Batch of 2 targets.
Target 1
Amino acid sequence: MEIRVLDSMSDKECKDVASVASTVRRDLRTQSESLHSLRTIVTVDHYNPYVTTSRPLSISAWTLIHDCLKTGTINDVCSRLSSLILHSEAAIARCKGSSDYSSEHAQLSFFAGNDYVTRRTLVDAAHEEALRMNRRFDERIAMNADSDARRLQCEFNLSNHVVQRRTVESAHIQALNEDVTRSQAEPRCPGKLLLNMTSHEEVRDSLSAC
């Protein structure tokens, strides 16, 4: 939903969203504004400190930012604001003729728009869990170094490999499904398929490294 709203906005509106979201995030981190007070701001009139004559903000733009403020801790809110900034930059990069963004920045923004970070996080988390399982078993073997433990180690290594592969592959499939769902909801963009292919190859590299 967030990406569709951004794609329906003009280039300037997307820049305003990114700019205000960045300012709100900074104010929360420096405690210049409290989270409670920001949650009470629901309009874009003179009561909103982030609306100025040089940067008027549409209600739809502020709604995107305000949605990030509704629940969670300051860290949760800042994380959602960071994601909104990335998605705003991705929407700007998708606008042809945008001279403010280099080709490299556009590619990075495309990855952000396709939830590249989420996809890699899923795979990395699955792999880290498999490593934790191995470490726990190694500690158990060190404490119980007998024939039964060695037999269990052989059985566990085999089963753990299967579990690890299934866990990582499940995360990979979930990420691919999210991409398919998003690509159906978004207008097709030149070069997007190639970028998706590149990111999927990186995920497969993570799988083969396990």
Note: The CA atoms of residues 24 and 30 lie 10 Å apart.
Target 2
Amino acid sequence: ADLVIQMLETDYARILRAIYAFGRGASRYPLAAFRTPSG
């Protein structure tokens, strides 16, 4: 169960970072939200 929770938290944090990066640099870096390192 802990592993599932950890994976969910990781995905959630990645989504938040993607939204944050997209919101900040969408005008200059349209693909910035999709260039987050996996893992």
Note: The radius of gyration is 12 Å.
